[in-house]
Design goal:
This protein has about 170 residues and is α/β, with parallel strands linked by helices. It has helices at about 10-20, 55-60, 80-85, 85-105, 140-160, and strands at about 1-5, 25-30, 45-50, 70, 110-115, 160-165. A 6-stranded parallel sheet has the order 3-2-1-4-5-6, with helices on both faces.
């Protein structure tokens, strides 16, 4: 499979990319290096230096044909999200919509989204499971939950299959 790993130069992204390559998949990393590093790019990976806010670059990259996308690009500081919600709304929510819209025109119909346990808020019981109520306590968690809801609609309306990993 050919997989686009958005945010693939970060800690988690680099490990996901390595596992994919070890399993024999072709990996293309898409990253703006705002928190990732070029030292995390492995030999054999292709690299597209780009931002999820750059719609034209996303569309051009996805036009190259991918079997799936793994979306790991997000701002993730819960505290900062409470003082700069516009930054988190723009990057996390609008950036994901940019990815989904680019997928619509590309023919790629599968995406794995890196969500967060922050969608649950304060646990009502332990262990927290998939049936636990969602009640984020910070704007970061809110963005992740909204993205899950948006993914549901793109699946329903555009046939883009998704998995959201919490």
């Amino acid at each position: 499979m050919k997989v686009l790993v958005i945010g693939g130069a970060g800690y988690i992204g680099s490990h996901v990319s390595l596992e994919l390559m070890d399993a024999g998949h072709q990996v293309v990393v898409y990253d703006n290096f705002s928190s990732g590093s070029k030292v995390n790019i492995f030999k054999g990976e292709s690299l597209v230096e780009g931002d999820i806010m750059d719609v034209a670059k996303l569309e051009k990259t996805l036009a190259d044909g991918f079997d799936g996308v793994i979306h790991l690009a997000a701002f993730k500081a819960a505290g900062e999200s409470m003082t700069a919600p516009e930054k988190y709304a723009r990057n996390n929510i609008s950036g994901t919509i940019n990815i989904l819209n680019a997928l619509c025109g590309s023919g790629t119909k599968r995406i794995v989204f890196s969500s967060s346990a922050a969608v649950y808020g304060e646990p009502e019981y332990l262990p927290v499971d998939e049936q636990h109520p969602t009640n984020p306590e910070n704007f970061y968690g809110f963005t992740k939950l909204e993205i899950e809801r948006i993914l549901h609609w793109y699946d329903r309306l555009k046939g883009i299959r998704y998995s959201a990993l919490r």
